[in-house]
Sequence to fold (277 residues):
Amino acid sequence: MNPTIPRPRVHLSLSTAALCGILACAAIPAAQAGPDEDDISPDRPGFGATSDVVGRGRVQLETSVQWDRQRDDDVHERTFSTPTLLRFGVADSFELRLETDGRDVIHDVDPASGERTTTVGYADTSLGFKWRLADQQGMRPSLALLGEVDLPSGSRAVRGRGARPAVYLPAGWDLDGGWNLQFMPGIATENDDRGARYRYGFLALALGKELSERWQGYVEVAAPQIASGTHGGTQAAIDGGFMFRLTKDCQLDASLVHGLNHRTPDLGVAFGLSIRH
Fold:
């Protein structure tokens, strides 16, 4: 979410940040989470989000390192980014969200000439909310409303054009045998080179499985952009991965993405860390 913060910040190396995160997980007192409190439920990995919110008074950080590759007759591009989401629980069913792709490093190679270029910058910020609308009742899914707006606040080289609002409707089913199903449709907006706004659709469907007390797996099919050919066409991908719960408030994840058409990066790899306080 799919799915950008460029402002004054403290810069840490990735290895230092990861070590600090794991140490923070280990330092969270067991007594802080009551015996009946649910385990952490991040919105990563994957394209879609869950219908869960973090809860009143909780703060949740979800961060990662991600590498994408797109290679076809027109472009050879490799992108390194650090997607990060910060979630603030302001009520039992409502949270505020601050999201970014972090620092982008984009390597391009012209297939014809072999010319190489590198673009580096901080991605735009997304401000948003998630409102839990309903809990699951039988086969009626849990439901949430997720709204966000991308702001043109990043480094000039990677900045988007104007504000781009979007709305999504995450739905989820907990099934027998440790299975779960997540479905998220949405509508988002983008501004073209002339500054004209257009809309595009979003769709994600994920099937997850509790493999053990700590391990989970998932597979997902997604169309992160459903648009006309004049606006970039439809993107489609399949992805999957594993999540490992260190504590009730800390989770690691790893995922692999494969693009299903030439408009979508053909390969992506990500490693993430989520912490709840």
